[in-house]
Amino acid sequence: RQTATILRGHTMTRLTTLMLLGLLPLAAAAAVSVDDIPNDSTWYLHADLAGMRDTSSGRDLYGWLEGEVFAELNEEIGIDVNEEVDRVTAYSDRTAGIVAVIEGPLRKETRDRMLALVALQSRYEIRSHGDYDYYFAGDETPRKPNGHPLDDLGDSLYFSFALPGKLIVTSREQQMRTLLERQGRIPGGGGHSGALLVLSADRTFVQAGLRTEELAEDAGDGWDSNILRNTEQAALLIADRDGLLAVEAQLRSRDPRMAQSLHSVINGLISLQVFNSELDPELVTLINNTRVSVRDAVLSISTVFDAGHVARLLAD
Predict the structure, then answer these.
(1) C-alpha distances in angstroms, 126 versus 56, 110, 119, 135, 275?
(2) Cα separation of 211 and 227, whole Å?
(3) What's the rounded Cα separation, in Å, for the pair 83 and 66?
């Protein structure tokens, strides 16, 4: 498979990138809030894998991930996500680069394998900050963060197992030192008018947010690119709601009129599909449960559905 091919030929940098990318198509002991995300972040991701494993609504989704992503990680590098990883929190700061904190009872054997991969494929060295050791791998030439998810890890990274139950990965040395001092957490800015949207719920499985400037630059002409050009941010939440999967997405538009237009278009598409006799009945139920609202320049879309149906759709 493509993932396996990449893993065989790249350094620890690529290994960590793949671990995070494997979770993104889902996207801290509890859900993150505006107090956990720096105000100038370009994106964030929080995935509570332990929460998925322990709830009926998350179990089917987790089973799909296990078959499509986690089994391959176990085969290639020996990380048993079921036993060793509980949560992943990551974000990219405009000036300070990428931070990722992987929480769980990582085994010593797993840590040794990761270090062996670095030793075999990349220059690395052990450094210390106070009572904590951390590792540096790759090229230490300073790079300017460009805002693209994970790209800042392309040439170098710092990582540490010094804090119990945590693997910390950063693209800047100062961030690593700060995280070690603060036990793996950098307090966020608390939010302001331009801060990233952060959606949360009592039992959150996945949270993610993104500034969309880069996406708009890569888009072509047409309605899709017009939407992106007029969208400042997007946020996603997947959570448990009374045994069902709840999904919420928000888009913050540059122009309130665009948000209103999208609201009308999506409502129109939902109305059309409800009368489509060829649709799966479970899909019709999902559409019927979908709610769309708009307030000022923020468009919100939410729905609830049976997790087993989603797992079947993903498997197909």
Answers:
(1) 43, 18, 11, 5, 63
(2) 13
(3) 12
- Categorize the per-residue pLDDT at 147 as very low, low, confident or very high, splitting at 50, 70 and 90: very low
What's the pLDDT band for 9 if we cut at 50, 70, 90? very low
Residue 197 DSSP one-character state: P
Pinpoint the alpha helices (H) of the chain: 2-9, 12-23, 49-53, 56-65, 71-77, 81-84, 108-121, 173-181, 213-218, 223-229, 256-274, 281-288, 307-315
Residue 294, φ and ψ in degrees, nearest 5 = -140, 135
Model-level pTM? Answer: 0.81
Rg (CA), the chain: 20
In the prediction, which pLDDT does 13 show? 41
Beta-bridge partner residues of 14: none
**Is 85 strand, coil or helix?**
coil
Which pLDDT score is estimated for 73?
A: 81
Q: Which of 62, 152, 135 is nearest to 99 (CA)?
A: 152
pLDDT at 127: 96
Look at residues 44, 45, 48, 78 and name the one whose alpha carbon lies nearest to residue 65: 48
